[in-house]
Design goal:
Length: about 130
């Protein structure tokens, strides 16, 4: 089970956009998507809501909400994000495989020198017993 947040980014008629966590979810990606869907129907209720349109992005992990009030129109982008690191929780989820990352690790020597004991000797030329005729 993962830890997820539903994030809202919004602005209104030229205002700067703000970002905030709307909900926190512990569960699957589908649980987080359901929380996002529920938030899309209720988040940011203006004084007098005239209409609300919800558009799902193709990935399914985000949506655009257009809320029209009596005197304003607000665009809200809702999306889900999964927690991948938390410095306050040193014991990671045991069900999750940690990403080992590429390569042998940070302490490995990137260009190790060959071991002298394992370097093969060059072949010796065979002796010639006779001189070839002229």
């Amino acid at each position: 089970m993962g830890k997820w947040v539903v994030v809202a980014q919004r602005g209104s008629n030229g205002d700067t956009y703000r970002c905030e966590v709307v909900r926190r979810v512990t569960g699957s990606r589908e649980d987080a998507r359901e929380a996002m869907r529920a938030a899309s129907l209720t988040f940011h209720e203006p004084w007098r809501e005239k209409s609300r349109e919800v558009y799902r992005y193709p990935s399914g992990d985000g949506c655009l909400v257009i809320v029209r009030g009596l005197m304003s129109e607000t665009l809200i982008t809702l999306s889900i994000a999964e927690l991948v690191h938390d410095s306050a929780d040193p014991d990671p989820d045991p069900d999750r495989d940690p990403d080992p990352g590429p390569g042998p690790g940070p302490d490995a020597d990137p260009d190790p020198a060959p071991d002298a004991a394992h370097v093969p000797e060059p072949p010796t030329p065979e002796p010639q017993d006779s001189v070839p005729p002229v």
